[in-house]
Structures are given as C-alpha cells and as structure tokens.
Amino acid sequence: MTATLAELAPALQEMLFLGFVVFLRVGGAMALMPAFGEVSVPMRVRLGLALAFTAAVMPAVAESVGAGRGVPPRAMLTEPLLGLAIGAMLRFFVLALQTAGTIAAQATSLSQLFGGSGGEPQPAIGHILVAAGLALAVMSGLPVKIALLLIASYDVLPPGQALEVGRILAWGLSGVSASFSLALSIAAPFVIAGLVYNVALGAINRAMPQLMVAFVGAPALTLGGLALLSIALPAGLAFWHATLDGFLAAPFGGPG
Fold it and tell me: Mean pLDDT across the chain, nearest whole number?
C-alpha cells in the first residue's frame, strides 16, 4: 500500500500543481464573469463555480501549464491579473446593458421607477435589460463558451510569461469604446423617441402657451416609454447577444 502511494505521489503532486495554476487564472476571471460573478451570487457559490470551471479547463491546458512547471514566482501574480482582464472584457457587455438602461430611462423619464431594485442601484429598465440579457446568454450556452474562452487564453497568453501591460491596456480601451457603442445602439430608439417628444412638446407649447403641456405630456411620455420598451427590448437583446457571441468567437481579436 505504501509503495503504491509512493508511486502515485508524483502524479498527484503534478495534478495539484496544474490545478493550482489553472485556478489562479480561472478564479480571477470568475470574479468579474457575467452571470457567475454577479454581486447577488453568494461567495461560496462563486467559489464552487470557479472550482468547477477549473476542473473543466484543466485537462485541456495540461500540456501548456505542464510545460511551464518552472515558471518564476511572478506567475503567481500575473495569472490572477490575466484572469481579471479576461473577466473584465466580458463584464463590459453587462456594463453596456446597464448604460443602455440608464440612457433609455433618462430619455423616457422612467429613471426613478423602481430604481435600485437589483443588487446594484440602477433604473428599472437597466435591471430588466441585465436580467434578461444574462438569462438569454446562459440559456444559449454561456458556460461552455466561457470554458472555451479560458482554454483559448492559454494559447495566446501562456502562463509564466511577462505581463504585456500595453497589450492589455489596448485591449481594455477597445472594450470600453465597444461597450459605449453597444449601449448607445441599444438605447437609440429611446433617445430618438425622447428627442421627438421634446421637440413636439416645445412646438405645442409655442403654439398654445396657456396649455400646461408638461401635465399633458408626462403621462404620454411614460406610456410611450413603456410601449417602446416592449417593442425595442427584444431587438436590443438580440443585437447584444449577437455581439457577445461575436466576441466569444474571436475574443483576442478585439471586443464586439
């Protein structure tokens, strides 16, 4: 029995080392990962998810990580940073939904309706967009796509190499710009409707100064905003999901 355990000890040690190195990157990514790294998800659940993704990724990257067995101690710091960078790139897509919801709420005077009902203070439209977008992504195979993304990251960013700060900064800047562009695209119908409403309200007020147009227009704006939400929300979520899938298909070529 002792001899058998002695024979298995090197293999067990190698497996533990492999799992530890993979967990460093996966754990950093899971801290910011959409759906799995949300504030509303308990810490123990997030830890369990990180371990589950580590077990899924580890067999596919065993050769890459094993080749770097003699990596310098700095890898213990760079691997979590790389994981955070990967998670942040996907987190930008959630921020795009939140930004789109804020823009839409301000344009349709719905910014205070049930504000702050989620884990993070935000208008109701933003909360609806985020919840619906994450549900759509998870139902469309987001866990599998995330695992493939983490596996692909070891080909582009092998463990143990020096951290390419310039490359990560450029990657992050492109993600920020793509996030705002995506948010404006989703919220465009609400912005256009709000602009038309204000122009029409100004024209009516100019033609009939004695009429209290604000009291007449406010209910119409709220009703129109809710109607537009029911019409534009499916198309906006479909566009967001297509953009997310496009990024996951080629994650290291630029977001969006």
Answer: 82
60: its two tokens: 């596919």
The answer to whether 193 and 225 have CB atoms below 8 angstroms apart is yes
The end-to-end CA distance of the chain, in Å, is 56
The number of beta carbons lying within 10 Å of the beta carbon of residue 137 is 24
Tokens of 127: 């909360």
- Tokens of residue 107, six digits: 């344009």
Give the C-alpha separation, 251 to 233, whole Å: 26
User: Phi, psi (5° rounding) for residue 118?
Assistant: -100, -170
Name the residue with tokens 């100004």: 202
| Rg of the chain (C-alpha set) | 24
> Which residue reads 């993070």 in tokens?
120
CB 113 within 8 A of CB 124: yes
SS3 37: coil
pLDDT in tens, 156-179: 888 877 777 787 888 888 888 899
Q: In the structure encoding, which two tokens stand for residue 91, read together?
A: 């987190």
Q: How many CB atoms lie within 10 A of CB 15?
A: 13
Q: Looking up tokens 């355990």, which residue turns up?
A: 5
Evaluate whether 37 touches 48 at the Cβ level (below 8 Å).
no
Own/partner long-range contacts of 62-65 (Cβ < 8 Å, ≥24 apart): 62/18, 64/154, 64/155, 64/158, 64/159, 65/18, 65/21, 65/22, 65/154, 65/159
Q: Is the CB of residue 126 less than 8 Å from the CB of residue 100?
A: yes
